[in-house]
Amino acid sequence: MLFPSFVFSAALLSFAGSAAGAQDAAKPNFPPRADASYEARVTRVSDGDTLWVKPLTGGKYRKLRIDGIDAPEICQDGGLASKEALAARLLEKVVVVRERRRDDYGRPLVKLQLGDEDVAGWLVSEGHAWSYHWRHSNGPYAEQEERARERRKGLFAQDRPEVPRDFRRRNGPCPWP
After folding, report:
1. Which of 74, 87, 95, 109 could form a disulfide with 45 if both were Cys (CB 3.0 to 4.6 A apart)?
2. Is this prediction's pTM over 0.90?
3. For residue range 167-176, what is the model confidence (pLDDT) as tens digits?
């Protein structure tokens, strides 16, 4: 029996759609675009620049990394203070999450807003993180870092605080708790 071409095409599209759906089901539950924006409740803080949120619209918990900053490793001087500052500021609060891209570990790199406040800018200005430096740029929070250094706040109370990249190079990753 011959099938009309539109019936065959519809069946093929249906099969392709279900196969794509199966592939999507295997992927983590992240927004579809890199520039996604949504509201979420902060449920856990892992360190000074990594946290978990639960979107208010439902779905799975999401592990996020704050974009534009580098906080000390948890086992590094200032690491625990950075984590505790972020937790005190955000835990159980609703934030606006704006995803920019993904890091090398697949985590969304995000900008976080708590009301009108840029969370990354606050962390740097309080001396709990560095503005993320790359190539010849002092990063997006260079002014906040400079003010924190001048006031010797947080990490910058030390004469020569070690950036996390150098700490990891010398010591490797922090051990699991």
Report:
1. 87
2. no
3. 999 999 888 7
